[in-house]
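Hi team, as promised in this morning's meeting, here are the two structures we talked about. I've kept the exact order from the run log so nobody has to guess. The first one is mostly here for context; it's the second one we should focus on when we meet again. Sequence first, then the predicted structure tokens.
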Amino acid sequence: MPVCKFHRVNLLSLAADMLKTMKSPEPIPHPSLLNRLSQYFFRGLITFLPLAITVYVLVLFITWTERTAMQMLRPLTGEFYLPGLGIALGALVILALGALMSMRTTGKLLSFIELPFTNLPVVKSIYSSLKNFADYFAPHEQDAQQVVLLKMPGHELSTVGLVTRQNMKGLPKGLAELDDQVAVYLPMGYMIGGYTVFVPRSWTTPVDMSVEEAMRLALIAFMASNKS
């Protein structure tokens, strides 16, 4: 009997020592109030900035058109002025300019007007880049503007690009001989640049997405929103 009691005491003490040495599970860390407030602040800032910048640009454009129209019409109409007339006149001027540029006879006139912008060293680079970029979004044939998924055979890596040229006709020697190849522009995130590659047409897979949506997603590096 004393031996059994001794073993019972040892077992109890051993169990007590094991309970002391056991570590309680670490509590799950919860974000502090400051971190939560900072998350709310930046989330609200990201929501507010695009709206604020869009409204600011629209207000600048409307104010400029209204002020310009008022200065032009005051000598003719006196104190009479209808609000919104500047926007209407601006739209008419843009429509008239587009109609003139659609005529073949105005091509030579435009080339003379562009001479200062296409010959000055620094201005030439800026003007040509902006013009080519805007011309890409101008109305063209439907197959000329295409969003594709570029994937090299035998590789799992793929990237989204924009087909900028369906064939190599009109390009200098060395590029014009590229048969059955397309030019694909690969935009970089946040519009810090991009690359144009010439690849076989079989490497591209059309994507059911507009060019505008693809450029918008490329701007934010295809970042997923909280809603998705």
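And here is the second protein, the one for discussion:
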Amino acid sequence: MIGTSRWALALVLAALMIGAAVYPVHAQEPMSDAERALSSQYPEQWAHLTPQQRDQVLNNYRQWQRMSPEERHAAQQNYEEFRRLPPEERQQVLQGLHRWRALPPAERQNLREAYGRYTRLPPERRQWMVQRFQQFQHLPPAQRQHVMENYRRWRQMTPQQRQEVRARFGKNHHQH
């Protein structure tokens, strides 16, 4: 299982790596002098890239150019940390990235917003959430399924129904 800080790293890496999907520009060939210099540094490798791979390289380069020095430094540190991960954890991060890219744009936006809300929570609340998630991960599969079914039912309830459930089971039963 990946540690909590490693999951945070995975999210940051995914955010950096998916940036090209947020700024789609389909150029296939370098447009600026800097981009031509980049491709001419590695002419043999550039020649063997597919048009989609060239797009990805150029989009990543453009994203890099838009980043502040602080953002570049953070990205470099994240990349170095990613490289130090054991191969199986790197594979898990990459699988998560592929799952992320497969999500519809609206769902990715919802997740970005949820992550933003999470980062604004007080540290003790975030820690509580991490602990609860870890407890969930350690449940037997049947219990995890039961929890997920309850969660789906909860999400389908109206605010009035939720309020009634809270009153029935105690006001602070589901809150921290």
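Starting points for discussion:
Residues 4-102 form one domain.
Confidence is low (pLDDT under 50) at residues 18-25.
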